[in-house]
Write a structure and sequence with these properties.
This protein is of the alpha/beta class. It has three domains: 362 residues, Metallo-beta-lactamase, Chain A; 256 residues, 4-Layer Sandwich (Metallo-beta-lactamase, Chain A), CATH 3.60.15.10; 38 residues, no CATH class. The chain is built from 27 helices and 33 strands. The strands form six sheets. The chain has an eight-stranded mixed sheet with strand order 1-33-21-22-23-24-25-26, with helices on both faces. Strands 7-6-5-4-3-2-19-20 form an eight-stranded mixed sheet. Helix 15 crosses helix 16. Its cofactor is Zn(2+). InterPro entries: Metallo-B-lactamas, RibonucZ/Hydroxyglut_hydro, RNZ2-like, tRNase_Z_dom. Homodimer. Interacts with PTCD1.
Length: 763
């Protein structure tokens, strides 16, 4: 059997020594290639410029708990008031614009409350990056119970629980209660947070900003749900088998009390007696003081009535009739006051005559916000930034991210319409207007300039490019063959999605037509979409096997979106549908079965044999040209697994999932060509690693040495490390660090390996 080598043995920029994030790093021995020096310099400079918020300080969680408690106390004080004055500032802001990689979601702000409309995969990551605090959320509204809208909800709930939010109110279809019960199969009890699910049969809900009434609506084929938030109001059209609507008047902003006029009329301004008089006058009541009748308009400015905004999701032509003929829209009382309609509606619906006519029924002053795949907006700017800078070092290992562009032209609309962009605002108070100042954009020149200002960085980049060009000349005849097998790191962080690193996901492209996915955390599909752009359907169609290491949310909650999008890709490409082989703990079937029976069908997407899986394993090996696929229990949570698989050509890959150092994993990964091992924590935090049942960097490297792995890639880093983890002195030229969207190839040719060794020696 040919000796197998890793292509990055001499080229990877991640084989480093020393502590790259140290503010004053000790002298570091000369690295064996220019890539090493280049990356060290880049990230040392970045580390000194890092936002302190990206590093979790000691006691950070306590600080978040204190912030949540302060909000609770201030909220309780406001509730003690008999009268609400209405919010002074209210705006609606786009979080996800509805593009294929970021589902539609909206954030509504008032100084009293925060509301989130839909919580698809990646919503939490966007809120963190753009500083929309999840700890301030009071209510989450779901327009329908599809994974597109609830894919990020389980992660959001776990985050709210961890940061000490005592209660969150969820409004959505009746299946929402079943969904919450289903996620407890992997989240465990949610005892520390009160989740109030508000069905349409309950009494109206009221808070400092608005009152919410739920009104059931029947459509032609299904029972629809309408959310109507009046004054600052919102219709949400639900499209599930059993849904309901909300009618929600938001309290108008009462007029201001005019002190000079009050003094002139003899009112006791400045004394305790003035309080009840002001309250009565602001409520529009006429009072009598010292025998004198005083009307509200004499001492108060007029109350500011609220506007109405509507959020509609009409996912297909099937629901157009129900939306357009709904009685709430047909009354002049509602239609005449609508200032904004947000359409979470695909292009196929927007271009129908019936839907266009319904849009035209609103006043000419009504604005229409469109959220669907035809939008063009950058969401994850920090991810683009770091990829552009890494791309300067090596364009093949760190390819630039790609946009996904819809080929179909946008629907022609005859009403004032705006295409959604991430962080686009529509302000309702104090001034009604669009605000674009917060919209993020990718300034490639600025990102390149920032990296270029790192001392000696450009010189090192030039040296790296010369090295790459020489290597290409040597390997010209092998260029196409050496691409496979290829490993693409989709998510390299732990616990929850953050702006630099998404949660776990690793794609192994075995050949041009065969791929295996190792773990599938929330947002995995979005990462694939940004990595491959217009080619994402081809990539999805080649995934035949998914391995889930354990049932923690950061390792599997992206699975459903991946499966739904894979089916869509096969249909778009005209390929026959076939389910994926799912290798996962048995507990995953409890979760998938509950979701399948109560929410959406999913089980036909997978092949899973809970009992004797000999036949399925044979099919898996045959479909992927594998000689062996092994798993073993590891030391993490209950039913946590690692895996290794050997290709017929001889190369072998071992994947740890989450684990402490584990002898069983050393055994099944013996002599691996590539070991991908979690290194959640830095050296010196062994006690914390043992408590959380994770590994430190040195522990992960030691496993690789005991395994006799040819190359070790460290993965699954704690999100406390802003861009790059802290290094130990155990790093050698056999150890690398993974980044999101990093792409490496395993070469399986003795001559090519020899040429790599020559290249390494030369440079």
């Amino acid at each position: 059997m040919n000796r197998v080598h890793l292509r990055l043995r001499s080229l990877t920029p991640l084989l480093v020594r020393g502590r790259a994030l140290s503010a004053a790093p000790p002298p570091v021995a000369r690295c064996p290639s220019p890539f090493h020096r280049t990356l060290i310099q880049l990230f040392r400079a970045m580390a000194t410029q890092s936002n302190p918020e990206s590093m979790q300080p000691p006691g950070g969680k306590k600080a978040k708990h204190k912030e949540s408690l302060r909000r609770v106390k201030s909220k309780e004080k406001r509730k003690q008031r008999v009268e609400y004055h209405g919010p002074s500032t209210v705006y609606l802001q786009v979080v996800g614009s509805g593009s294929r990689d970021n589902a539609a979601s909206l954030y509504v702000f008032s100084e009293f409350n925060r509301y989130l409309f839909n919580c698809g995969e990646g919503t939490q990551r966007l809120m963190h990056e753009h500083k929309l605090k999840a700890s301030h959320l009071d209510n989450i509204f779901l327009t329908r119970l599809s994974w597109m809208n609830v894919g990020g909800l389980s992660g959001m709930i776990l985050t709210l629980k961890d940061i000490g939010v005592p209660e969150c109110v969820l409004s959505g279809p009746p299946q929402l209660e079943k969904y919450l019960n289903a996620i407890k199969t992997f989240s465990g009890p949610l005892d520390n947070i009160k989740l109030s699910v508000r069905p349409y049969t309950e009494e109206p809900y009221s808070d400092e900003t608005m009152t919410v009434y739920q009104v059931p609506i029947f459509g032609e084929f299904r029972y629809l749900c309408l959310f109507f938030f009046r004054v600052f109001s919102c219709f949400l059209i639900f499209t599930d088998s059993l849904l309901r609507s909300l009618f929600s008047p938001i309290h108008p902003k009462r007029g201001n009390f005019l002190v000079p006029q009050a003094i002139e009329l003899g009112l006791p301004v400045g004394t305790a007696a003035i309080g009840p008089l002001i309250s009565a006058l602001k409520d529009g009541k006429t009072i009598t003081y010292n025998g004198k009748e005083i009307r509200p308009e004499q001492v108060c400015t007029p109350s500011e009535p609220g506007a109405v905004f509507i959020v509609v999701e009409c996912p297909s032509e099937e629901f157009i009739e129900a939306v357009c003929t709904n009685q709430h829209y047909q009354t002049g009382e509602t239609e005449g006051k609508v200032v904004l309609v947000a359409h979470m509606t695909p292009n196929s619906v927007l271009k129908t005559d019936q839907y266009k006519k319904w849009m035209e029924r609103f006043p000419s002053t009504t604005e229409h916000l469109i959220l669907n795949e035809h939008v063009c907006s950058v969401h994850n700017v920090r991810s683009h930034k770091i990829q552009i800078q890494l791309n300067m070092i090596h364009p093949e290992i760190f390819p630039q991210l790609q946009p996904y562009e819809v080929k179909e032209p946008q629907a022609a609309l005859h009403v004032p319409s705006v295409r959604a962009e991430c962080l686009l605002k529509f302000q309702l108070r104090p001034v009604m207007e669009w605000q674009r100042d917060a919209i993020p954009f990718c300034n490639t020149e600025e990102f390149v300039k920032e990296a270029s200002e790192v001392p000696n960085f450009l010189e090192e980049v030039d040296e790296c490019k010369k090295m790459s060009q020489n290597r290409k000349k040597m390997f010209l005849s092998f260029e196409e063959e050496e691409k496979y097998p290829e490993v693409v790191f989709i998510g390299t962080g732990s616990a929850l999605p953050m702006k630099i690193r998404n949660v776990s996901g690793t794609l192994v492209n075995i050949s041009p037509s065969q791929s295996i996915l190792l773990d599938c955390g929330e947002g995995t599909f979005g990462q694939l979409c940004r990595h491959y752009g217009d080619d994402v359907d081809e990539v999805l169609s080649k995934i035949s096997t998914v391995f889930i290491s354990h049932m923690h949310a950061d390792h599997h909650t992206g699975l459903l979106m991946l499966l739904y999008q894979r089916e869509r890709a096969l249909t778009a490409l005209g390929k026959a549908f076939s389910p994926v082989f799912l290798m996962a703990p048995n507990q995953i079937m409890i979760w998938l079965s509950q979701y399948h029976h109560h929410c959406e069908e999913i089980l036909h997407h997978i092949k899973y044999n809970k009992g004797d899986n000999t036949e399925m394993l044979k099919s898996l090996l045959r479909n992927n040209d594998l000689e062996k696929f092994q798993t073993c229990l590891v030391h993490h949570c209950r039913n946590a697994f690692a895996c290794s698989f050997t290709h017929q050509s001889g190369w072998k890959l071992a994947f740890s999932g989450d684990t402490m150092p584990c002898d069983a994993f050393v055994y099944i990964g013996k002599n691996a060509t590539l070991l991908i091992h979690e290194a959640t924590l830095e050296d010196g935090l062994e006690e914390e690693a043992e408590e959380k049942r994770h590994s430190t960097t040195s522990q992960a490297i030691d496993i690789g040495m005991r395994m006799n792995a040819e190359f070790i890639m460290l993965n699954h880093f704690s999100q406390r490390y802003a861009k790059i983890p802290l290094f130990s002195n155990d790093f050698t030229d056999r150890v690398g660090i993974s980044f999101d969207h990093m792409r490496v190839s395993i070469a399986a040719d003795v001559m090519r390996s020899s040429l790599l060794d020559v290249s390494t020696a030369h440079f």
